[in-house]
Amino acid sequence: MNEQKTNPLGTEKISSLLLRFAIPSIIAMVVSALYNMVDQFFIGRSVGMLGNAATNVAFPLVITCTAIALMCGIGGAANFNLCMGQQEKEEAASFAGNAITMLFSLGVILCIITRLFLKPMMILFGATSSVLYYSLIYTGITSLGFPFLILTTGGTNLVRADGSPKFSMTCTLTGAIINTILDPTLIFGFHMGIAGAAWATVIGQVVSGIMVILYLRKFKTVKLTKEKLRPHPHYIGRIVSLGMAPFFNQVSMMVVQIVMNNVLIRYGAKSSYGSDIPLACAGIITKINMIFFAINIGISQGLQPIISYNYGARKLDRVREAYLKAAISATIISTVSFICFQLFPRQIIGIFGSESEAYFRFAEKFFRIFLFCTFINGLQPITANFFTAIGKANRGIFLSLTRQVIFLLPLMIILPIFFGIEGVMFSAPIADGFAAVCAITFAVKELKSFQKL
């Protein structure tokens, strides 16, 4: 009996496969997003608003880690599953091995670069004079965990591709639990302040990374030898090609975060709120949104092996069904998020510490306007990853750039010129609407083309 008949990706009910692969992926992505939220909570309770602003300044580097991890992890996993669907096990093993090598190597390189240029990076990312001290401490420590964070985030995609979504989830969950326990212990018990939060994060990331390494040594579906781990331009090129969509999506988020920090500081200084309130509030709100957005990313990552395998096996009806069910699920999740953001902004922001009334007024306004089109935000990542999964990297890359780079970035620069700090708020819903239209247009055209194949 051949692989195509025995592999459940090609035979099992689509809804069951989505549940099996997406739920662990969702949990892993949400837990990963909670890493920063847990730090934000305890730092807000100990250091206060300036500590939360410092984590916001450091956040572009976390996004960079995720960008590298998804480029190697999703690019490697997509190629792996496409090869498995075509019965090319040796090629599949080479893609997995090269992806692993890329993950750890790039993590070490980013750690070194960050430590060499830490202060200018923090200033570039928007640290004010009052925030710089805390950002240097927090980022200086957390940079030590970058190789393990990247290995965990990217490696779990390979673990899922190998048919072990639950273990993939367990790796991330274990690190998050350790971080959650150590945060209050180090911050309050050992009086380490923001440094305690940073060390708790690093320790959790190291444990998760070690778990991924132990799994990858005993891959189930193929044998990963030392030869498969040796970098090869052919495999690296293909991995990068299919990993560019999620990579550019994350990099664009990083660029937007940096620009937004600086715009908020500039126009916040001209408003009644000052610079530090917008910087702190926007950081918290962005990370809260990322928890809900992480659910949609989790659905798209759980969708990837199903799409790739069935597209490789030319089972296009199953590909279409999987995409539509994932898109509907993401839209439902996004709508629930929208309702929460519109109805309970003050209660949500209050979890991370009580500041002035001006702080709460800005946070409520920012929540309701900036995240107004959250209900359609799930379509872009699902559709971009769909094109990546079927090997059409260029379309996936374009869609991954629509919201952040093509629409949001120009609007974030132009609108504040005319509307002040409120212009930053209105830039997001406009960009979200245009990005959703692009995603729907591309998806409908691609799904119609399946009828001709």
What are its keywords?
mainly alpha, 453 residues, 2 domains, globular, 0% strand, 18 helices
Question: How many DSSP-defined strands?
Answer: 0
Helix content: over 70%
Low-confidence spans: 1-5
Structurally, the number of domains stands at 2
How would a textbook summarize the main sheet? none
How big is the Rg?
A: 21 Å
Strand content: under 5%
Q: What is the element string, with H for helices and E for strands?
A: HHHHHHHHHHHHHHHHHH
Structural class: mainly alpha
Task: Report what the structure shows.
The chain has 453 residues and is mainly alpha-helical. 84% of the residues lie in helices and 0% in strands. It is globular and about 60 Å long.
Write the layout of secondary structure elements.
Layout: H1 3-6, H2 14-46, H3 49-85, H4 89-116, H5 118-124, H6 129-142, H7 146-161, H8 165-189, H9 194-216, H10 226-229, H11 233-268, H12 276-312, H13 316-343, H14 345-350, H15 357-370, H16 379-389, H17 393-419, H18 421-449
Helix pairs in contact: 2-3, 2-8, 2-9, 2-12, 3-4, 3-6, 3-7, 3-11, 3-12, 4-7, 4-11, 5-6, 6-9, 7-8, 7-9, 8-9, 11-12, 11-16, 11-17, 12-13, 12-15, 12-16, 13-16, 15-18, 16-17, 16-18, 17-18
